[in-house]
Design brief:
The complex is a heterodimer of chains A (115) and B (110).
Chain A lengths: L4 E3 L2 E4 L5 E6 L6 E8 L3 E9 L2 E5 L6 E5 L5 E5 L8 E8 L10 E2 L3 E5 L1
Chain B lengths: L8 E5 L4 E6 L9 E6 L6 E6 L4 E2 L4 E4 L5 E6 L8 E6 L14 E6 L1
Parallel strand pairs in B: 1-9
Antiparallel strand pairs in B: 2-7, 3-4, 3-8, 5-6, 6-7, 8-9
The chains are: A mainly beta (115), B mainly beta (110).
């Protein structure tokens, strides 16, 4: 069974640009969550999607957005990139939404560098 | 939000058991305790979870105290590849998200 796939693995963008990251969850999983990880802040929750609906959103500015498609694949978009957006972006998939006592499976992440 | 408390770092000799503690005094009766680990620059990996009985799988054992206010993750024969940050997590309540604390950085030494 294929795991969680995130593309691309590495990305370099310049300030002011926008970026779209993709996450394909494990087959049959309907929940996708996104996290940002930086050395100083650790793992921080961005948002969670379940059955194409955003269930929850973390404390990030509106430049960060996401969506989920009918096949459960998810994308997140960051507009007007800032240097501080450089981070490892992780996607996690689970059978149900994370409040339903179900384990999450993470992808390898996309490492975004903003220059 | 329910919170967990873990020591920031621990060392363990290769081949010995690694016992990683976690306090979760605010846990409610039907909440599971989850453990994940993150090896450098990789995505977190699910290890095990439990409610009140001890649990064991191919990766680890989980011992939960009778009052459920704390638990211990046991790696019975630690290897160098077990060097990672280990997170003890309670599932989110209601519409809250799954939050990771700082975890315990386990270093397995030869």
């Amino acid at each position: 069974k294929a795991g969680v796939t995130q593309t691309p693995r590495y990305l370099i963008k310049t300030r002011g640009q926008q970026v779209t990251l993709s996450c394909s969850p494990i087959s049959g999983h309907r929940s996708v969550s996104w996290y940002q990880q930086t050395p100083g802040q650790g793992l921080q929750f961005l948002f969670e999607y379940f059955s194409e609906t955003q269930r929850n959103k973390g404390n990030f500015p509106g430049r960060f957005s996401g969506r989920q498609f009918s096949n459960s694949r998810s994308e997140m978009n960051v507009s007007t990139l800032e240097l501080g957006d450089s981070a490892l972006y992780l996607c996690a998939s689970s059978l149900s939404w994370t409040g339903a006592n179900t384990e999450a499976f993470f992808g390898q992440g996309t490492r975004l560098t903003v220059v | 939000d329910a919170k967990t408390t873990q020591p920031p770092s621990m060392d363990c000799a290769e081949g010995r058991a690694a016992n990683l503690p976690c306090n979760h005094s605010t846990i409610s009766g039907n909440e599971y305790v989850y453990w994940y680990r993150q090896i450098h620059s990789q995505g977190p990996q699910y290890i095990i979870h439990g409610l009140k009985n001890n649990e064991t799988n191919e990766m680890a054992s989980l011992i939960i105290t009778e009052d459920r206010k704390s638990s211990t993750l046991i790696l019975p024969h630690a290897t160098l590849r077990d060097t990672a940050v280990y997170y003890c997590i309670l599932p989110p309540r209601g519409n809250n998200d799954m939050r990771f604390g700082a975890g315990t950085r386990l270093t397995v030494k030869p």
